[in-house]
Each structure stands twice: as C-alpha cells, then as structure tokens.
Amino acid sequence: MQRWDLGVGAVLLAFALGGCGGGGESSVPGAEAPHYREHKAITSTVFWIGETGSADNGGISNIASVWDDLWERSYGGVDDPENREGYRPAGFVPYENPFYVALPFNDFDKEGHRKRGLESIIPWYTSPAPGQSLCKNRWIRIRKGDRVAYAQWEDAGPFGEDDAEYVFGDARPKNARNDHAGIDLSPAVRDYLGAGDVDRVDWRFVDASEVPDGPWKETVTRSGLDWIDPDLYLAKGTDWNWQLTGDVNLSIRADVYDLDLFDTPVETIEALHDRGIRVICYFSAGSWEPWREDAGAFPDAVKGKKMQDWDERWLDIRSPAVRVIMQRRLDLAKAKGCDGVEPDNVDGYSNDTGFELSGRDQILYNRFLALQAHHRGLSIALKNDLAQAAELEPWFDFALNEQCHEFDECDLLDPFIRAGKAVFNAEYARKYVENTDGARDALCDDARRRGFSTLVLPRELDGSFRYDCGE
C-alpha cells in the first residue's frame, strides 16, 4: 500500500530547507528562540543507521526509519558506532548527515496518513508539500555540560511515535525503558558531546538559520519520505513497446507502452488505458533539448557541452533550477495520466559534460528523480547508468537499457532481475535486425535465459519495425 500523500507542485522550498520547516525567525547562530522549549536532563541513548534488532535495543532494527524504508542504503551503509573516522563511519562518506537523532513522535500514522491536528501540535506547522514530513530533517540543539552539538531529526524513538506532550510540550517522556529515555543520539552526536551510551542531555528545536557552522553542516540531509510501494514495480518479463517518434502504432500487443512525454496526446494515453495498457512517459533528465516547450526555462549556466551525435547539451544536475524543471516535468506526466516515467541521460558523471560531476552527484540526482516520481504515484525506470545499477536498484521500479548485449554489459542488470523487476532492453545492431548468422536468435535465447524483455528496434524509435524476443 502506498504510504505517502499524493499531489503535484514544486517542492523546492521544502528541499532547500531540509523538508520540514527548516527556516525560522532568528538569524543569529546560537540565539535563543523562546517559542521552542528547552527539555532538560533528558535520558539519552545511542542508536545508529543499520543497527539490527537485538535484546539490547528491544528487537528494533534501524535498517529502515519511520520515514525511509531504505534508510541504510540512503545513508550509504552501516553507521558503525565503533569503527569511526572522525565523526563519520570508517570506509565510506555518507550521503546523509551523520549528526542525527530520534525523538518519540511521527507525523504519520501506521497506515502512512498524516495525523490529524498537527497544526495545533507542531509549532512550525505549515501546509506540507507532497512527499515531505513536518518532522524529518528538523534541526535540534543538544547540550551536555559545556558541549553543544546540532543534529537533524531522522527517526521516531526511543520506544514511541506518539509522545507529542513531551516532544512539543513540557511533559517528561512517557517511555519507561532505559531510565525513561527521551532521545536517541547518533554515534557522531555521542562522540562530539562526549556522551556515554546512556547519559543525560538538554535539547531543544532550532530553526535552520540558528545552526552554526560545524561538522553537522558538512552533509545536510534533505531527502523526503521514501516508502516502498511494490504496486509501482513492473514485474520481470513484462511485455513492452517503445516508440518515441512518428505516429504511435496502437496495434502492438504489450502490457506497457513507452512514449514521449511532450509529444504524446492525452487522448492516446487514455486510449491505451482503455485497453488496460500502462503508459511510461519519456523525457530527458540530463540534457537540454532546444526544441522542447520548456527549453527557455533552463538558465544558460546549467547548459554544458554538446552531446555526441545529438543536438542536445548536458545539464548540470547539481543545480536547483534543473531540479525544479524536472519536478515540473513529473507534474506534467502525472497530469497527462502517465503511469510511470523514463528519465534519459542520467549518467552524465561518466561523460564529458563540461561540469565536474561525480558519481556521488549522479547517485543523489537519480535518487531525487525516483523520490519525486514516487511522491506523484509514478513508476520510474533507471535508464542505462549500468555502473550504478546495483546501488540504485532499490529506488527504481524497473530498468531500461540500450545495447547491453551488443556491448556485453547485461550482467550489470542482474540486481533488477533478482529483485523481480522488469529489465526492458533494446538492441539496434544490424546483425540483430537482419538475423545475420542467427545473431538475433542467439540474442533472444540469451535474453529469455536472463529474464529480460528484449526488443530489436530502429535506432530512431519510429515504429518502422519491431522484433520481440518474447514472441
């Protein structure tokens, strides 16, 4: 069951502020904000991302959080509390802030619906954007003696999700376990404060403008809700058709049609829906196409080098302006009735784009696209980007690949097959088109063995011919 509130509209403000009302009135670092209560002498305990359930922690696993079913993967691994390099785990650089805490309140119920009456409970309440929590990523100041740390709220606990009287009021924690523990600290917060595994701290909420520079600002968590919805998956072996140019051939028998987002009329999508066919809508998420209707919305600064063989230019995927435009394209997909999306050119980091894009930049951007698609109830394909397929598979509902057989790269798509998700594969080589020396027969035998849904198509994707290995 889908557990997020659906809707359309840009969420740049929520993204920029950390997702849950991170702005505030005070601009002076460390200044007191009297509208946020100070909670004094609260028992603190230590928890960490990737912690498995045991007798010591009441059988509670922290592989997922109440707001992120993929918390460990979102972070980048296990936040090992003992094997550290400074304030982060040894062996990898986290994608999210290692300074995090848990407090015993969740603004969603067990069914994933927003709780009623939040406007009278949460002091920074504003009408939330789709896919955003009012609590996740909120900044908190924690004091132990003369040491002060800042952290972001990333889970509910210890041992509770409904203690609003304590979290937002002046009551003591309802929880009776571990000496009435009322806050969980990450290893980084523990180490900065010099706290023990069970200790006493003072804490209060702060606005983002109050947070001073420090190790807690090196990586700020900005992600929204990420709840897995298996209904969005496309199952292994799903039949598909792919046509991006020309008049769409509606006579193809397939479970899924992949069509151009901008050029496909709503009437075509509705006609396919009437036949029980799901529609995936194509758009480029990594390049500037000068002929698109929204081409003028891209600032010159985000346009990079020309793509080889195409009249397109690479985009700076780190730019907030690019992300806003992509959210608008996802809004368009939702409005037109698309069931899912196929964002293209999401491997800029491995190309000569004119920007210094890292693999980390690409991972974060591709996850951003997946989360925003899911917030709109849209399935999403990972298009090519084979080198990152294993890491990105949990966020994507199926894969779409070009020419992995021709270039002997198909093994990299195994994570999707193992997860039971469809791998849509297109091949263009002349030997497959003409079945030279039985090349297409061998291709299809291998595709069926792998569980791929493989088509041999014209490179122009104009519907002029189609060979389906599943037939």
Write a structural description.
By secondary structure, the chain is of the alpha/beta class. The protein has 2 domains: 12-217, Beta Barrel (Barwin-like endoglucanases), CATH 2.40.40; 230-468, Aldolase class I (TIM Barrel). It is 20% helix and 20% strand. The protein is built from 12 helices and 20 strands. The strands form 4 sheets. A 9-stranded mixed β-sheet has the order 9-10-11-15-16-17-18-19-20. The protein has a 6-stranded mixed barrel with strand order 1-7-4-6-5-8. Strands 12-14-13 form a 3-stranded antiparallel β-sheet, with no helix packed on it. α10 (414-418) links the parallel β17 (398-402) and β18. α7 (320-336) packs parallel to α8. The longest helix is centred in the last third of the chain and has 17 residues, at 320-336. It is elongated and about 75 Å long. The model is unreliable at 1-34 (pLDDT under 50).
